[in-house]
Amino acid sequence: MAKKNKAELNQEQTGSFNEGASGSMVPALDDPMGKYDVNTSAEKVYKRNMLIRIVAIILALLLLLVGIGFGCVSILNYGGRFTVSLKGNLYGIQIADNEKFDNPTLQLRGSAIEGMDNITKQWILNQNGELNVKGNEAPVFEKFEDIDKVYGDHNCMPYYLAYTYVVRNGGQAAKGKDATVDFNATLRIVSAYKGAEKAMRACVFVDGVPTVYAAPKKGTENGLEAFAADKVFLSDDTIMQQTFNDFKVGDVKRFTVVVWLEGEDPECVNDIMGGDVKLKMDLEVISEASADGT
């Protein structure tokens, strides 16, 4: 074999170096300045930062939704289990939680009862101290009708809700009309949870006369429960409605609403523990009379 001279050897070495620099022979020399490594690292950092931003946005939205949900639950649980409202009042009808009508208003709100325990109607009298447990000093009544004589919010925690208020026609005669009106009082179930309303009793006093309402007996449309019930609910979301006619200027009506979970009701079972019912009494003028009776 013929020996290569020095010039030929230098040419082959130079050619090999040039081929490697072009990327076909020596991969390590493809990026002599390391610029492609820098670009790859920057792309990874960008993707990582974008992922962190997306995760942060999702977490913030979840926290916002949880906060809104908690706020709604708080409003439901602490906004009052019972409210009284005047709807579309243009006739001077007033409501107040005291017999002197101090601070008449268009809406009254009772305080909430958390974790209402089941009792019976007779226990509300508390004559044998049935409700005096856990340090609770419950009021004592000689008869059930006496609970109607306490004004305002007079709940007995955690056994029953009681609220007494008065309605007055405070209208003024004007333009030939004497401001005599007819109005409806409607007790509604605003919301219910875990079927608690099926074991509930709602007693409505009107001028001292009580009527106890209950959900229809299980398996019937309007069957009356045998224990502590005078009438059944009008519907799934309406407990009662009563019309009062010829309500003249200066006339007053007193209402008391008492609500409890009836322990003798077959629907009062463990499944309703933690349940919730929110009630509202709507008062609405449905007609007015003119001075000449037309």
Describe the protein's architecture and organization.
The protein has 294 residues and is α+β, with helices and mostly antiparallel strands. The protein has two domains: 7-78, no CATH class; 80-290, no CATH class. 21% of the residues lie in helices and 32% in strands. The protein has two helices and 13 strands. It has helices spanning 6-22, 35-78; strands at 82-87, 93-96, 107-109, 118-119, 152-153, 160-169, 177-193, 200-206, 209-214, 231-232, 238-247, 252-262, 276-290. The strands form two sheets. Strands 2, 4, 5, 6, 8, 9, 10 and 12 form an eight-stranded mixed sheet that branches. A five-stranded mixed sheet has the order 3-1-13-7-11, with no helix packed on it. It is extended.
> How is the biggest beta sheet arranged?
8 strands, mixed
Shape: extended
- Our estimate of the beta-strand percent is 25-35%
Provide a count of the helices: 2
* Structure class: alpha+beta
Our measurement of the CA-to-CA distance between the termini, rounded to an integer number of angstroms, reads: 137 Å
Rg to the nearest angstrom? 38 Å
Q: Strand tally, please?
A: 13
Mean pLDDT: 79
Order of helices and strands: HHEEEEEEEEEEEEE
The low-confidence runs, each spanning 5 or more residues with pLDDT under 50, are 13-29, 69-80, 290-294
Q: How many domains, as an integer?
A: 2
Residue share in helix: 10-25%
